Amino acid sequence: MTQLDEPLHVIDVRTVAPPQRHPLIFSTFDSLPLGAALVLVNDHDPVPLNRQFESTRPGKFRWDYLEAGPALWRVRITQLGFGDEAVAGSSCCGACSCR
Which residues, including other chains, have CB under 8 Å from residue 90's CB and lie 6 or more apart? Predict the structure, then answer.
């Protein structure tokens, strides 16, 4: 089974109370195995969430818009698992399979 064949976790935050949205998204993302993805469904462009991912998980995710408004946004967020601690003390950039 390839990565694209893997089942996706879908989180429709339109049905989730606003204070619970980001904690739910981050806990789901953090539980994903490398290469797996979740799909976020929202009624607005989740730019603030993207910024939060950038600041808290730099290099550890890929953000792909599947649908971009005007009434519905769907974003696939893929767990890359790379980042500063993955390559600390190494000359590896984290983008290959040399580890």
Answer: 99
Residue 40 token pair: 């976020």
| pLDDT for res 91 | 41
Angstrom distance (rounded) from CA 32 to CA 56: 16
Tokens 């696939």 -> residue: 76
**Exposed/middle/buried for 51, CB within 10 Å: 0-12, 13-18, 19+?**
exposed
d(CA 55, CA 53): 5
Q: Report phi then psi at 28, rounded to 5.
A: -65, -45
Cα Dmax for the chain: 46
Positions in the chain short of pLDDT 70: 1-7, 82-99
Kindly calculate the radius of gyration of the chain based on its CA atoms and give it in whole angstroms: 14
